[in-house]
Amino acid sequence: MKFKMAEKSLFAILLRSPWWLSFLIAAVMMLLARVFLPEAFRAIGMLSAVPFGVLGIIAAWRQRDKPSPESLSLTLTNLANMSWKQFLPLIEKAFIQQGFRVQPLNAGPADLQLEKLGKITLVSCKRWKAATLGVEVLRDLKALQVSQDADYSACISLSLPTGVALKFAKENAVQLICQDELASLCLKSMTD
Questions:
Q1: Among 21, 45, 83, 139, which lies 20 to 30 A Cα-Cα from 60?
Q2: What separation in angstroms does the CA of 106 have from each of 103, 111, 113, 149?
Q3: What is the extent of the structural domain holding 137?
Q4: How far is CA 11 from the centre of its chain?
C-alpha cells in the first residue's frame, strides 16, 4: 500500500514552498524552545524542529534546478514575441531534449505527436498565443486522442485556461502546459 500525503497538509505545503521557509520555521521553533521551555525539556523541544529541517533539505533538493522567477518572466516575454514559425521548432526541440520522438502533424487539433517508451501523446500548441484557452480546443484534442487511440493529450498556452476549460482538462486527463510550466519547458531550448 502506497501512502499519499494530503495535498493541504503542512508538510505538503512546505515541500512546495521555498526551501528556506522550512529552515526558518525550524530556527524559530528551536529559539522558542530554548527561551520558553524549562531546562529539563529544552533539548526535546529543540528536537521537535528536526522534521522542519529535513523538509527544508528535501525542498532544497527538489528546487535545485528550478529557474528563477525573473528568468521565467523573461522567457514568457520572449515566447510571446515569437511567430509560429519560430515557436514550433523551439517546442519540438524542448520535447526532444526530454527524450521524446517528435512528429509534426499538419492538420487537425493536434500539432505534434510525441512518442516515448511506446506511449503516444498528442499536443496542441497552435493557439499558444490566444488571449484565453477555451474548452473547445480541449474538446477537439480529446476527441482526436480517443479516435487515434493515443495514450495522452496535452495543450500548450501562454494564457491560463478558463474555469470551464480547467474543469474539462481535469475530468478528461488533458495536460495543460501554461505560463511558468511552458517557460520552464522552453528555457533550456532557448539558451542552447
A1: 45
A2: 10, 7, 11, 18
A3: 69-191
A4: 19
pLDDT at 8 over 90: no
Q: How far apart are CA 128 and CA 109, in angstroms?
A: 12
**Cα–Cα dist 141/160, whole Å:** 17
- 163: in domain: yes
Q: What pTM value is reported for the model?
A: 0.70
Write out pLDDT tens, residues 35-91. 999 999 999 999 999 999 999 999 999 888 777 788 888 888 999 999 989 999 999
Domains in the chain: how many in total? Answer: 2
Q: pLDDT digit string (tens) for 11-29?
A: 889 988 899 999 999 999 9
pLDDT for the residue 192: 64
Q: Helices (DSSP H) in the chain: which residue ranges?
A: 10-16, 19-36, 39-47, 50-62, 69-80, 84-97, 135-148, 163-172, 179-191
